[in-house]
TrEMBL record:
It is a single-pass membrane protein. Its main location: membrane. This is Preprotein translocase subunit YajC. Pfam families: YajC. It comes from Fontibacillus phaseoli.
Amino acid sequence: MFPLAAGTPSGTGSLISFIVPLVIMFAVFYFLLIRPQKKKQTTRNNMLNALQKGDKIVTIGGLHGTILELADDVVVLRINDTTKVTFDRSAISHRVSES
């Protein structure tokens, strides 16, 4: 009934209109979700690698202590004068600043 115009492309316009929103969605996810998470993970790994004996830290469970011994995966904390507790290095939440 209605003939197609001679100069009208058949499917490239619909393909581009399908791909462009996908690219935009990926860019939004990258800049809002993926990139900040990678940055946070990098700073956490740097903090864990920079730990030294005598640093005051807080574990993920909220336990405060001072590092007595460090190994690759294990940290020994002094909780009070007589109590020593062993934790995985990954269980450390953050270092407490001295000031």
